[in-house]
Amino acid sequence: MNRSQLIIQEVSRCPAVDGATMADILAFSEPLRLTLKHVVRNGPLPVDQFAEHLDVDLDAAHIIVQRLLENGYLEKVYADETGKNAAPMYRVALAPLRGRPIPDDL
Amino acid sequence: MPAVRTSKMPSKIVIHSFMRETGKTNIAAGLAHLLAAYGERVGIIDADISVPVLHSRLGVDAGRLKYAFNHYLVGDCAITDAAVDLAWDDASPPAGALVLVPASTDHNAIRGVLHQDIDVRLLNAGIEDLAAAHNLDVVLLNAPAGLDEISLSCMALADVLLIVLRLDKEDYHGTSVTIDLARNLKVPNILLAVNRAGSEYEPLEIRRSVEETYGCDAPVVLTAADEAAVLFAGHASVQERLAHPLAALLRALRQKAP
Questions:
Q1: Cβ of A80 under 8 Å from any chain B Cβ?
Q2: Residue B16 clears pLDDT 70, i.e. is over it
Q3: Which of A22, A44, A91 sits opposite B149 (nearest CB)?
Q4: What is the pTM of this model?
Q5: Where exactly are the structural domains of chain A?
Q6: CATH topology of domain B15-256
Q7: pLDDT (tens digit, 9 = 90+) per residue, A14-70?
Q8: Which side of chain B, N or C, has fewer Cβ within a 10 Å radius?
Q9: How far apart are CA B99 and CA B97, in angstroms?
Q10: Fold of the A3-92 domain
């Protein structure tokens, strides 16, 4: 299997989540882990830059981004607030830190 | 759909330790003072919500605080509402700026953060907003000790990760785990600061041993006596700053931070 196929296989098998935690990101293989960390640090990327960071072709990047989107790791955003004048970009859908039930009288 | 944020980001230095009681917060406070004393515009955020002491290390009375980082995280205020501008009268020129975002000591505010769901993206967005409002060159993040979601998120944002450790077995092992995780996240720069080293050991020997063990620079080895001086960094004269226990750390940070 080539690099693209390996990454597509990995994202196809990853469990669906309701937002990713940093621990989820750490569990990915290096190309995905570092690309997602780059997005956390620097903000959303369009698909062509995912292709660049992952070192895969554009078709493979489309599939990878779509799988990550479907599985809850990415969310779609637009540089233009109307969403009409720009290609979509994708940022990591970070899961909220879940609050813990604490007794009211604590 | 949310819009994309686009603005210049300052250097982010994350101060972390695997164990509690390493003196991490003292070093963060001393470093912030020293950077500001050298003319940098510094922001410092106390993300160590469960141990809210950074403000007192910087001489801020908790009674002065209307809002804190806790309130920002749960959406009760903007991060700039929680920022305290710490101008000090006896600073020598060219003093920069020091802006603190404290963690709250109020039990309701601590409880609020523990109880509610928190959007961790607020961490990055808060740094950006604080930096823009105060024109900051550098932001220090006092991360919680140990490895939790907040400390991992801080690490992911770091340009420089400064790990404070003591020379005991648990911390030695824990620091190794922390460095592994940071390397997996490709944190661009990792520095170590050894604190509370016993005076019976030679600092240079400690430094060499730590650097060999972890493969990271350890520019500073502090004894318990040094730590007292750390807290008075902001009030040191120009001469005193050159000989300050954190001076070597500052030089290393200047080489590493973008």
A1: yes
A2: yes
A3: A22
A4: 0.86
A5: 3-92
A6: Rossmann fold (3.40.50)
A7: 999 999 998 899 999 999 999 999 999 888 999 999 999 999 999 999 999 999 999
A8: C
A9: 7
A10: Arc Repressor Mutant, subunit A (1.10.10)
